[in-house]
C-alpha cells in the first residue's frame, strides 16, 4: 500500500471497478423468505430471551458484543446466514471453526449456546440458531451504543459447513481493496455496504498476526511522523513484536474501544488504521468511492448509523436456498440433528 498513495489514477481503475460490478454474485442479499413476525405465534418470547441474555453477556464483558457481531459476519459470508459457523467438527462433518481465517479468531460460541438453551426451554424446536445469532448481533450493537434495526427472521440451520469457503470467501487483514470489494460483491453487497459494515471494527480487537505487517511496514507512510502517531505505534509494537505473540490483541479503535461510534473512521483519516485492509479504504489509490465514504462517516455519525443498520439487514438477508429446502432447526447449535 505504501507505494500506492501518490500515483495518478490509472485508466485501468475504471475498467476494474466495472468488471467487479458486472460479476453476478452466487448468493443474494435480497428477497429472502424472512418476516418480522415469523415467531409471533410459535415463540413470542424469542426476541426477549435473546435480549436478556445479551444484556448479561455484555454487562459481564463489553468485548462480548464484538465477538457476536464477528460470528454473524463470518457466518453470513459462508453459505449465507445459516448457522454453519456454529457447527463443531464431527466424524461426518468438517466445520468452519478451524479454517485458517477463523482459527483463534472466533469466540462467543458459549453465549449462543446459553441463548439457545433458554429458548429451547420455552419453545423447543422452533427458533433456529441462525436466527438467534442474527438477533444477538443486533442486540450486541445496541448494548454498546450502536443503532437499532428490525431483524427479519425465519432462517433455517444448515446441515453442512464449508471449511474451504471460509478461507476463500472471508476477507483477510492484509488483503487489497479491490479483492475485498469483489468478495463483498460476490455476496450481493455494495462498496457502501463494505465501508459501513467495516465500521463494526470500532468495537473490534485485532490479533498481532493480522497487523504485524502493517505496523512494521507502511504505518508511518499513512500516519505521518508526529508525536501522537509515534506514541501509538510504539504501543502497538510493544503488544506485537516482530516475532511471536501472534494472538496478542489490540483494539482497532483505541479512542473508544467499548463504544459503538464513528471514531474508527476518524482514526482512518489520521492514517492510523490497525489493519491494512481497513486503512486501504482511505489510503489506496483505488479507494475513490471508499475514501469519500470514510470521510463522510467520520464527520457524520448519524449517516454511519443509518447505513450500518441498512447494511446489517442486507447482510443478514444473504440466503442459502438449500437451507430453506433441506435445512432444520437444530436442537444444539454445535451439531446437526440426528
Write a structural description.
The chain has 338 residues and is mainly α. Helices cover 50% and strands 2% of the residues. It has 16 helices and 2 strands. It has helices at 12-22, 46-60, 63-76, 109-122, 129-143, 163-169, 177-186, 191-198, 208-215, 219-223, 227-239, 263-269, 276-283, 288-299, 301-316, 321-326; strands spanning 205-207, 249-251. Strands 1-2 form a two-stranded antiparallel ribbon. Helix 12 (263-269) crosses helix 14 (288-299). The radius of gyration is 20 Å and the shape is globular. Mean pLDDT is 90; it is low at 1-26.
Q: Got a strand count?
A: 2
Decide which structural class fits the backbone.
mainly alpha
Query: What is the radius of gyration computed over CA atoms, rounded to a whole number of angstroms?
Result: 20 Å
Query: Which residues sit in consecutive blocks of at least 5 with pLDDT less than 50?
Result: 1-26
Strand order of the largest sheet: 1-2
Biggest sheet statistics: 2 strands, antiparallel
Average of per-residue pLDDT values: 90
The H/E string reads HHHHHHHHEHHHEHHHHH
Strand-residue proportion: under 5%
Q: Kindly, what is the distance between the CA atoms of the first and last residues, rounded to a whole number of angstroms?
A: 50 Å
The general outline is: globular
Count of DSSP H/I helices: 16
Helix content: 40-55%
Amino acid at each position: 500500500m505504501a507505494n500506492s498513495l501518490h500515483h495518478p489514477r490509472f485508466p485501468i481503475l475504471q475498467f476494474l471497478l466495472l468488471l467487479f460490478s458486472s460479476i453476478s454474485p452466487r448468493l443474494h442479499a435480497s428477497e429472502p423468505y424472512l418476516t418480522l413476525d415469523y415467531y409471533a405465534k410459535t415463540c413470542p418470547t424469542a426476541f426477549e430471551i435473546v435480549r436478556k441474555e445479551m444484556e448479561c453477556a455484555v454487562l459481564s464483558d463489553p468485548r462480548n458484543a464484538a465477538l457476536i457481531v464477528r460470528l454473524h459476519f463470518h457466518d453470513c459470508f459462508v453459505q449465507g446466514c445459516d448457522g454453519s459457523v456454529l457447527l463443531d467438527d464431527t466424524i461426518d462433518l468438517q466445520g468452519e471453526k478451524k479454517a485458517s481465517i477463523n482459527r483463534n479468531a472466533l469466540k462467543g460460541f458459549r453465549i449462543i449456546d446459553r441463548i439457545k438453551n433458554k429458548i429451547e426451554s420455552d419453545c423447543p424446536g422452533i427458533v433456529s440458531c441462525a436466527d438467534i445469532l442474527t438477533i444477538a448481533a443486533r442486540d450486541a450493537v445496541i448494548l454498546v451504543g450502536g443503532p437499532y434495526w428490525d431483524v427479519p427472521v425465519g432462517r433455517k440451520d444448515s446441515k453442512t459447513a464449508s471449511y474451504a469457503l471460509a478461507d476463500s470467501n472471508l476477507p483477510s487483514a492484509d488483503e487489497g481493496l479491490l479483492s475485498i470489494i469483489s468478495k463483498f460483491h460476490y455476496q450481493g453487497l455494495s462498496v457502501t455496504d463494505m465501508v459501513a459494515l467495516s465500521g463494526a471494527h470500532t468495537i473490534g480487537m485485532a490479533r498481532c498476526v493480522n497487523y504485524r505487517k502493517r505496523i512494521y511496514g507502511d504505518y508511518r507512510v499513512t500516519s505521518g511522523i508526529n508525536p501522537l502517531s509515534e506514541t501509538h505505534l510504539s504501543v502497538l509494537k510493544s503488544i506485537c513484536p516482530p516475532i511471536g505473540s501472534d494472538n496478542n490483541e489490540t483494539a482497532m479503535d483505541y479512542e473508544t474501544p467499548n463504544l459503538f461510534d464513528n471514531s474508527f473512521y476518524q482514526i482512518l483519516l489520521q492514517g492510523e488504521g490497525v489493519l491494512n485492509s481497513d486503512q486501504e479504504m482511505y489510503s489506496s489509490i483505488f479507494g475513490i468511492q471508499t475514501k469519500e465514504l470514510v470521510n463522510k462517516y467520520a464527520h457524520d455519525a448519524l449517516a454511519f448509523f443509518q447505513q450500518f443498520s441498512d447494511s446489517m439487514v442486507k447482510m443478514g438477508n444473504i440466503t442459502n436456498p438449500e437451507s430453506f429446502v433441506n435445512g432444520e432447526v437444530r436442537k444444539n447449535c454445535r451439531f446437526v440433528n440426528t
